[in-house]
Design brief:
The chain is α+β, with helices and mostly antiparallel strands. It binds flavin-adenine dinucleotide (FAD). The site of flavin-adenine dinucleotide has 39 residues, from α2, β8 and β16.
Length: 540
């Protein structure tokens, strides 16, 4: 098969590890979330020799647990974060231009009880559109009760007869990370997952690289002129490798939970932003055969966990308001199909206790041994964050780096026309059920055909995922474990309830490619079953 640009092949992992140790890099990046991926792409495009080291899988931390909106955050206007809103609202177009499959424009419905409330929303939305330089054809609309009843039959339009409806963009967070990492790899970056940084290499009193342990226990040294810490919720732990005396307190960790329901239980066509009794806003987002609802925002003291728990109180908080807005029977926690929780690595605001009120701004610091650390921010603002981080990297390297020329599309983003036409084209050329093409184009964009070449047969128990995705994940996207495929490549762990039969087929297929023993295949399946059970433990 023809070569795929920027492939991160699992089979070539041993060679990648050897190459990492052999070379002196300009920049080694700790972490494999959106912050690291954006910086890696920008740095590689500037011609720097870049290495990326991720302790788990790419996007295994916060960057696979978001609400999956590429948005300016309308609600941050109320907090007075005008500069942040302007930047991220404008970034929506930039992300869309590079990856139209990973930034799909959708209507967001903001319902209200009275004309006066709608007027308040309209003022906010108009300012948001002005800051985001939104084109006239994409500006908000005002829906009446009749329009609401027509567009959203399940919505309780008699109680909320007005709505302001505006554009937001929907992404697939972990796949946006992968697309940026692959783009960095295509520009020469060396990228490895399951490789934890556990110490710094020093030359005098300056950081000159990192010491890494792979999950199989191999130790290696990766030398670099500059070390960058993009470890998200773990950024302070990595900072203490630089100096154990560095006090905690830079970050404020806040947990956010999402739950999914069958689409038939909450049949919505558009995205919704709803005000809940404590004054916060939550989202309702339809996705394939499910709809997800999120998010919570609660302070998490102590050590960040990779798989934070989804608690019954979180689930009840998200489900309780639904009957205020929709004409549906109350939803019970047992009806939840899947759930996920993530930690926001926010920059602590002295004196602000309520995490909802903490700014989503980012910050870059240079530590006592010259390690550049970045935290805060949002998925949406990953490109400006990368530029800010590289300005500080330039200080460490002793030369200004300038901005990269990064207008080229991300992998899968090189198609003309909109997603709907790509979807129709795939349906036609491969004689596929529309459901399958709809899902594939939103995950793989213009690369969908190449995924299908590897196997167009449906995976057991699902109506829209194909077997070729397993091979693609291993050959092109560096998946090393079944969990990587289920959660962060195909996203079936989030938007489906993968059956034992599906896990068996997927594990066998991966096992054949990666030479797994029967015991390992069983182990991989068990690990995913445990993950799925962990996220739904509140139902017990
Ligand atoms: P992470 O994604 O956590 O990446 C850090 C990585 O570093 C991890 O993968 C970790 O394994 C790795 N690591 C840690 N220690 C080491 C080590 N020693 N060696 C090697 N690797 C290490 N933003 C939006 O724009 N839109 C949204 O809709 C949105 N919704 C959100 C909803 C929720 C519930 C949450 C929690 C956040 C949301 N965000 C959203 C914010 C956004 O998701 C985060 O800002 C972003 O994902 C943070 O990415 P990161 O790369 O900094 O951290």
């Amino acid at each position: 098969m023809p070569e795929v640009p920027g492939a991160i092949s699992t089979a070539s992992r041993p060679a990648a590890l050897r190459a990492l140790a052999a070379e002196r890099h300009d920049l080694v990046i700790i972490g494999g979330g959106i912050s690291a991926a954006g910086i890696a792409r920008a740095a590689a495009l500037l011609g720097l020799r870049v290495a990326v080291l991720e302790a788990h899988d790419y996007a295994a931390g916060t960057s696979s647990r978001s609400t999956k909106l590429i948005h300016g955050g309308l609600r941050y206007l109320a907090l007075g974060d005008i500069a942040l809103v302007r930047e991220t609202a404008r970034e929506r177009k930039e992300v869309h231009a590079r990856a139209p499959h990973l930034a799909e424009p959708r209507w967001m419905v903001l319902p209200s009880r009275s004309r006066l409330d709608r007027l308040k929303y309209r003022v906010g939305v108009s300012l948001y559109e002005y800051l985001g330089a939104v084109a006239s054809g994409d500006r908000h609309q005002n829906w009446s009760r009749v329009e609401l009843e027509h567009e959203e039959p399940a919505f309780a339009a008699q109680r909320h007869p007005f709505a302001c409806v505006y554009r937001e963009y929907l992404t697939e967070d972990a796949r946006l990370v992968l697309a940026n990492l692959r783009s960095a790899a295509a520009a020469g970056a060396q990228i490895v997952n399951y490789a934890r940084v556990h110490a710094l290499l020093l030359e005098g009193d300056r950081a000159a690289g990192v010491r890494v342990r792979t999950e199989s226990g191999d130790e290696l040294e990766v030398r670099a002129r500059c070390v960058l810490n993009a470890a998200g919720p773990w950024v302070e732990d990595v900072r203490r490798l630089e100096s154990p005396e560095l006090a905690k307190g830079w970050l404020h960790l806040s947990k956010g939970v999402h739950v999914t329901l069958p689409a038939a239980r909450l049949p919505v066509r558009n995205l919704f932003m709803l005000e809940v009794p404590d004054g916060r806003l939550i989202f309702v987002i339809p996705r394939g055969s499910l709809v997800y609802i999120g998010t919570t925002d609660t302070t998490v003291p102590g050590t960040p966990e990779l798989w934070p728990s989804v608690d019954l109180a979180d689930v009840q908080y998200l489900l309780a308001p639904l009957t205020r807005y929709f004409d549906i029977e109350p939803v019970r926690p047992e009806e939840v199909v899947s759930a996920w929780a993530g930690l926001r690595p926010l920059i602590a605001d002295v004196g602000t206790r309520d995490p909802t009120e903490i700014s989503r701004r980012d910050e870059v610091l240079i530590g006592p041994r010259g390690v550049v650390s970045i935290a805060g921010g949002k998925l949406t603002g990953y490109r400006p964050m990368a530029r800010a981080a590289l300005a500080r990297v330039g200080e460490v390297l002793g030369r200004p780096l300038g901005d990269p020329e990064d207008a080229a599309p991300l992998p899968g983003g090189d198609f003309t026309g909109d997603l709907a036409s790509l979807e129709r084209e795939l349906t036609r050329t491969h004689s596929l059920p529309p459901l399958v093409s709809a899902r594939l184009v939103r995950l793989y964009g213009s690369e969908s055909s190449r995924v299908l070449e590897r196997g167009a047969e449906l995976l057991p128990g699902v109506a829209d995922a194909v077997i070729g995705e397993i091979d693609w994940a291993v050959e092109i996207e560096g998946a090393l474990h079944l969990e990587d495929v289920v959660y962060r490549r195909t996203r079936l762990g989030l938007y489906a309830s993968p059956s034992d039969a599906l896990l068996a087929v997927a594990a066998d297929r991966m096992g054949k490619r990666l030479g797994w023993s029967t015991e390992q295949i069983e182990l991989e399946r068990d690990r995913v079953r445990q993950r799925l059970a962990h996220d739904l433990a509140f139902r017990a």
